[in-house]
């Protein structure tokens, strides 16, 4: 991951790991059975082979993960790989029916942790960092963001590298609160969501002043 941008660096990975363990702890305290070790491994690996950074000819995320863990004798290697393959927003947006994904609490924990780091104060910083990495405008008053984008629309925009940083809030980030899957994640998302709403409103107000 050394060639990833600052929004997908080790600090992001560690924040997701810590958020996932926090959610795990809350679930376990409330009697929910969760494999804490499995969650931590999946959180640590969750961005390996990220499609946004994948280049033709490179090993896939699954190949890297399975090679690393099998050589170390980890018994749940396949489950870690499956979690990592199903974490992303794109996978959820595609809406493909997946019974395993619908019922894997460890996946839900890592998904919620990853979403939490995409919203709130760190989410704002990460959105700006990734937009700079992709050389996308921060704000364009002439460009109206699309709300409730379909998977196809999201994929097309990603490939064309169009859109703006503020547009991304409407197209993805402000949708994440309603996609949280664990009770602790839902509670944690509320405050972070409100921070983003206030931020987007402030951007609009500051632009209108001119």
UniProtKB/TrEMBL annotation:
Lineage: Eukaryota, Fungi, Fungi incertae sedis, Mucoromycota, Mortierellomycotina
Pfam families listed in its UniProt record: HD
Domain of life (superkingdom): Eukaryota
Domain HD/PDEase span(s) in chain numbering: 5-128
InterPro entries tied to this protein: HD/PDEase_dom, HD_domain
PANTHER family associated with the record: HD_PDEASE DOMAIN-CONTAINING PROTEIN, SUPERFAMILY HYDROLASE, PUTATIVE (AFU_ORTHOLOGUE AFUA_1G03035)-RELATED
Name of the featured protein: HD/PDEase domain-containing protein
